Amino acid sequence: MSPVRRFVVIVLFDGVDLLDVTGPPEVFALLRRETGEATGYDVVLAAETMDPVTTSAGVRILPDTTFQEVAGRSIDTLLVPGAVELDAEGRVRAVSDPAVVSRVKALAGQARRVASVCVGAHILAEAGLLDGRRATTHWSTARQLAAEHPRVEVDADPIFIRDQDVWTGAGISACLDLSLALVADDFGEAVALRIARQLVMYLKRPSGQSQFSVPLEPVSTTRRVEDLRHHITRNIAEQLTVTDLAAHAHVSERQLTRIFKTELGMTPAAYIESARVEVARNQLESTDATLERVASACGFNTTDTLIRAFRRQLDTTPTEYRNRFRSSS
Q1: Phi and psi at residue 240, in whole multiples of 5°?
Q2: Contact 61, 26 (CB under 8 A)
Q3: Cα 246 from chain centroid?
Q4: pLDDT at res. 218
Q5: Strand-by-strand arrangement of the 111-116 sheet
Q6: What is the average pLDDT value for the chain, to the nearest integer?
């Protein structure tokens, strides 16, 4: 039997995010090394012309081919990265070149499946490929995607979403999770996990894994709050009352609450609970510790408190979360 070679086309254009382009090919290239077989992917970078493309990082990339040259060819996977800009108020916004959108729309008709990386979902949406579908993108542009494309069911939480033959991924490192999921879909879960280990990824995360976590919350603008956050993390198993935190920061309890609401958009108690849930999530994913031990290690004291926090924060229970996201050895 001849080896299976899947033809992958990655769309290139000026201003494209560099990691969106380079991340997936790294994953695909490891398949052959892990299996020792000729089966795998033939990846090409396609652009409007053969001229170098300047990425958002300033690094220039040479295309392998042009859109015109791949037109009419049977494509296994069309990968569409994205690009962003800052508006007048310093907010991140996804940008879509109409010429690129037109090319993507045409090439998608030749592809077995289409996948966007990070804000590449905006290009798919402009091409009409996400209408009536559930999709994700980087959390920073999810509201923009929903506002500009009301026919798309935007879910900013998962790291990637598959809706039949269209896949969308969240931001930055999630491009690796999306690529691993594509490998698993093509060649099986076992080889995808082996590739994940080669990439030194702690866990090949399922699509439902949230792209949000406490470390991803906005960094505060004051050293005092950052010190408090580190203090909470270091002492997560302790009682951590508002009184204690105020004393640590040398402010009144009222001032502490005002600082947290201004800097982090939540009360100290809410932040502490979210931090404890984050630590508990990690333990549930990576250890066999009982719920009693997890609750104690995270400062919840009782399993009932742990369960109630999980329901508030994640709309699930610790047991359900572990069953879904436990890393298999």
Answers
A1: 55, 60
A2: no
A3: 35
A4: 46
A5: 65-66, 40-47, 5-11, 75-80, 111-116, 166-169, 160-163
A6: 87
Rounded to whole angstroms, the Cα distance separating 254 from 221 reads 19
Q: Any bridge partners for residue 79, and if so which?
A: 10, 115
Query: Rounded distance, CA 81 to CA 171, Å?
Result: 10
Token output for 167? 């896949």
Residue 189 structure tokens: 């879960």
- Which parts of the chain are beta strand (E)? 5-11, 40-47, 53-54, 60-61, 65-66, 75-80, 84-86, 92-94, 111-116, 134-135, 153-154, 160-163, 166-169
Q: Which residues pair with 97 in a beta bridge?
A: none
* pLDDT single digits (tens) 65-115: 999 999 989 999 999 999 999 888 788 899 999 999 999 999 999 999 999
Pairing outcome for strands 166-169 and 84-86: unpaired
Task: Report the Cα 47 to chain-centroid distance in Å.
Answer: 25
Write out pLDDT tens, residues 289-325: 999 999 999 999 899 999 999 988 887 889 988 887 6
Q: SS3 for 285?
A: helix
Dihedral (Cα; 104, 47, 83, 182), 10-degree rounding: 60
For residue 231, count other CB atoms closer than 10 A to its CB.
16
Beta strands at 92-94 and 84-86: parallel, antiparallel or unpaired: antiparallel
Confirm if 135 and 155 have CB atoms less than 8 A apart.
yes
Is 197 within 8 Å of 183 (Cβ atoms)? Answer: no
Radius of gyration of the chain (CA): 22
